[in-house]
Every structure is written in structure tokens, then in C-alpha cells.
Design goal:
- This protein is an all-alpha fold.
- It has one domain.
- The protein starts with a helix and ends with a helix.
């Protein structure tokens, strides 16, 4: 699971770096006025912010889903351990009873 989280972060970082590089290249190569360039930069910054917010939202959802799965797995694990413990306790009790009965028959 950690690999998935790490690779998702790498993809987001690569995307953001690509977007910034693309914006810088567009500004350097396209002959526009200062006002147009500022408008373009503001629009791209707004879009980048929206994409980052969406990526953060998706990340939180994935984290919450993972936490829920881990909680459920832990609950099921505790349940299995409790059932195993009960089985062992019952087996020990039956063994004690059988031993007691055998001991009483041997003395009788």
C-alpha cells in the first residue's frame, strides 16, 4: 500500500512540474502583452490550485478507505483470536474433565 501512495505522489509531482514547465515555455515562446501574460498565469494558477485540491481530496478519500479497511481487518483478527482462545480454553477444560474421570476410575 505504501508503494501505491508513493507512486501517486510521484505522479502528482511530475504532473505539477510539467504544468509549470509548460506554462513557462508558453510564456517565453508566445508574444503576448503583459496583461495577457498575467491573465494567462492567473488562469493557470487557478487551474493548478483546483487540480491540487482535487488530488488532495482524492488522497484523503483513499486514506480514509485504507483506514477503514485496516480497522475492519483488525476487528476480524481480534474476532478470530477470541474464537481460537475460546476453543483452546474449552479443549483444556475437556482435557481436565477427562483426566479427572480417568483418575477417579483408576482409584475406584
Amino acid at each position: 500500500m505504501a508503494r501505491e501512495d508513493g507512486s501517486a505522489g510521484t505522479v502528482v509531482l511530475a504532473f505539477l512540474l510539467g504544468a509549470v514547465s509548460g506554462a513557462a515555455a508558453a510564456l517565453l515562446l508566445a508574444p503576448v502583452t503583459g496583461r495577457e501574460a498575467r491573465g494567462y498565469i492567473n488562469e493557470k494558477a487557478r487551474q493548478g490550485r483546483q487540480r491540487a485540491e482535487e488530488a488532495a481530496r482524492q488522497g484523503r478519500e483513499l486514506f480514509d478507505q485504507g483506514r477503514e479497511r485496516a480497522t475492519e481487518a483488525a476487528r476480524q483478527g481480534r474476532q478470530i483470536i477470541d474464537q481460537g482462545r475460546e476453543t483452546v480454553v474449552n479443549a483444556i477444560e475437556r482435557g481436565r474433565e477427562a483426566y479427572q474421570q480417568a483418575r477417579e476410575k483408576g482409584n475406584a
